Amino acid sequence: MKTLSLLAGMFLLGPMVAQDPARPNAPSAAERMQELNDLQEQLVKDWRAEMTKAREDAKAGRKGARAIRMRPDYGPLAEKALAYAKDFAGKDEAVDFLIMVINLDQTRARPALEVLMADHIDSPKLAEMGRMILYLDRIVTPEFAKDAQAKLMKSKSADVRGWALFAVHQSTIESADLDGDAYKAARTKLMAAAAEVEDKDLANQITGAIDEREKFGIGCTAPDIAGLDLDGVAFKLSDYRGKVIFLDFWGDW
What pLDDT does residue 131 have? Predict the structure, then answer.
């Protein structure tokens, strides 16, 4: 009975771990990702332990106290993720490893992005890069970022296109003349994207940026504020229209 139970358990668990048909004994993508996550966790623990020791050495005035990195050295981990991505070249599983590389190590971000642009441009998984698409110019060169964002705008994934469109038109929404053609064109494209995407966070980011510019931008009329002053007298911001005032917003949270 125990043998039958064990076999039944193996049968149920087996299909959950997809194997590479060409290498039936190789670890699955999920197993390798778990390995990388475990390694990252260990690197963080080791780095924190080094930070603690360095502080203790400095506090005690011990000689030989050395400077510690501001973050763990993820280089070897990123290299391993790149290698695993090659093992799943052309497959959707590779996207997870490549995005991990971009997240962990900017010095290795470009080769990972090159593979994503060449082989996975239509993968919905690219949307997991999310806000990174907005800041590609800080991760790689501005020229490469511009080219990558242009390619992403042609993805079959609405969410990927949406993030790329937002990246390309964000500065226009933030600074262009509200009555100008550039602002109007960017606004039209982004509102259409916001209505199409499934990522609610992205939709809110787009509409929020437009609302902020149109309601709170320089030259806009401030929304009326009503309340009580320090003497308990009711007032409205509009009571001071035409006067120079200083508003100080604060909280005790």
Answer: 87
CA–CA separation, 48 and 214 (whole Å) = 45
Query: Measured between alpha carbons, how far is 29 from 32 in angstroms, rounded to an integer?
Result: 5
Contacts of 50 (CB under 8 A, 6+ apart): 68
pLDDT in tens, 188-226: 999 999 999 999 999 999 999 999 999 887 777 777 888
Q: 148-167 burial, b for 16+ CB within 10 Å, e for fewer?
A: bbebbbebebbbbbbbbbbb
Main-chain phi, psi angles of 224, to 5 degrees: -70, 140
Q: What angle do CA 245, 180, 243 make, to 5 degrees?
A: 10
CA separation for the pair 53, 176 (Å, rounded): 51
Kind plus residue range of the DSSP H or E element containing 226: strand 226-228
Q: What is the pLDDT of residues 234-247, one digit of tens each?
A: 988 888 888 888 87
Statement: the pTM of the whole predicted model exceeds 0.70: yes
